[in-house]
Amino acid sequence: MAKTDPYAALRIKEFNIFLLLRLFLVFGWSMQFIVIEWQVYSLTKDPLSLGIIGLMEIIPAFTMALFAGHIVDQKEKRNLFALCIAAFSLISLGLFLLTSNTIVGDWSTTSILYCIYALVFFGGFLRSFFGPIIFSLVALIVPKKIYPNAATWSTSTWKTAAVLGALFGGFAISWIGVTKTLCVVFFMVLVSFCLVFLIEKKPILNKKIGEPVKESLKVGVRFVFQNKAILGALTLDMIAVLFGGTVAILSVFAQDVLKVGSEGFGILNASISMGSIVTMFATTYIPISKNTGKKLLISVFIFGVSIIGFGLSNIFWVSVLMLFISGAADGISMIIRQTILQLKTPDDMRGRVSSVNSMFVGSSNELGAFESGLAAKIMGPVAAVIFGGSMTLITVFAIGVKNPVLRELDLTEDVAASELE
């Protein structure tokens, strides 16, 4: 049934709870990201300050990633997830207080800005744990034979939450203001914290509990670098996201290039995720296991072309369309990457492999935000986006030529083998 049933994973009760939990958590996180970017740029009017947000998050996320993966493989996942969500609620509460009338009236702009950066830094530390925990937890909730279907629904839920959070965040800034919007974020995080306890504790599958950290990390990194399919997919996405990401400077386009205000800002952000959602739900009916590598390369190529189109456009709805297409292409590449990781990673190494994935792809989002802000500062936002899209296209051609294992990758046999387990 798992082979043809697009709702196979949804027939598992705990997986539905997990999806609802992730919906609330990512909804709040996405809103918070939008509000922080809007508030920081409103305070500074400097695109480089948006890049610094990314830099403040990538430093702890990158440096802690491997250690976080080691901890996740050694600990029980449900309670560790709850602990991280509780800590994230403190960040949301802190940002809510920083935008209150009392602090805004009494504190200097510089002090508020530095405190925001500090909370973003703490969030980067937590983010290094979220990825490995979620990746490992999904594999403990659903049987291996429906990993691809579960990966599609999990990623689709994440993107759905991202689009709703981005859209509501942009409009909420205009409707109820920054402070009340952050109060909504805090509520969303609390809901996700309550939901996590509806999932039962899971067994620890790592047989080497207490293994020295250095040896544990070495094993995880060695596995990724010896698997050409995983390494190729991660490298492709890392470089594409690093140079092709536009999210970090969308507020510049909304305010200074397209002049569409906070509502337009929310629509621009939401259009990316909406494109991803459409393709992700489509992949529940159209498997991506055949000619997987070629599909990954083509999707990233389309992503690069659409980013260049967005940079060249000065018409709002054309810009929205280009971002929608970029999101659609990115959605396909994300599903393919997650499917490769789920099928190719041993159960006792999921935390560490996911952490390496975070270092390659997750951290490149923040580093890409810094690159986008810096490039926009130096060459202007339009030229920066066109440059990023061009670098993405160059990367696709380079990876396609240099990594034949990824180019010829086909997961049909892996999916069939998982059906027999």
From TrEMBL:
Residue ranges crossing the lipid bilayer per the database entry: 15-36, 48-68, 80-99, 111-140, 161-178, 184-199, 230-254, 266-288, 300-325, 378-401
Molecular function per GO: transmembrane transporter activity
Keyword ATP-binding among UniProt keywords: no
UniProt topology in membrane: Multi-pass membrane protein
Compartment(s): Cell membrane
Keywords (A to Z) from UniProt: Cell membrane, Membrane, Transmembrane, Transmembrane helix, Transport
Pfam family, one: MFS_1
Coiled coil: none
SUPFAM superfamilies, per database record: MFS general substrate transporter (SSF103473)
Signal sequence extent: none
GO CC, alphabetical: plasma membrane
Domain of life, per lineage: Bacteria
Protein name (Swiss-Prot/TrEMBL): MFS permease
Organism of origin: Jejuia pallidilutea
